[in-house]
Amino acid sequence: MMHPEEIRAMNAAGLKDTIEVARKEIFNLRFRKATGQLADASRIRAARRSLARLLTVQREQQIWAAYEATMEGEV
Fold first, then answer.
1. N or C end of the chain: smaller count of CB under 10 Å?
2. First-to-last C-alpha distance (Å) of the chain
3. Residue 61 above 80 pLDDT?
């Protein structure tokens, strides 16, 4: 589990790659649960929350970039 400070320190490309890995992890956990091979079902919840944190920080960065772009035009 990554903390928001660690996630915010990532660049956009690294964040995108980490989001893709998190989505694949969730898929694999759900597949293992469906086949009865997952011993700890709470890992799915933790993975979903981790993905939500990643997506939230990504959206924050997009909003901030849009804000900075509009502020450059006003100067």
1. C
2. 41
3. yes
Work out the pLDDT band at 74, boundaries 50, 70, 90: confident
Number of domains composing the chain? 1
The letter for the amino acid at 54 is: L
Task: Look up the domain containing 10 and give its range.
Answer: 4-74
Mean pLDDT confidence for 5-11 = 93
3-state SS record for the chain: CCCHHHHHCCCHHHHHHHHHHHHHHHHHHHHHHHCCCCCCCHHHHHHHHHHHHHHHHHHHHHHHHHHHHHHHHHC
Its pTM stands at: 0.88
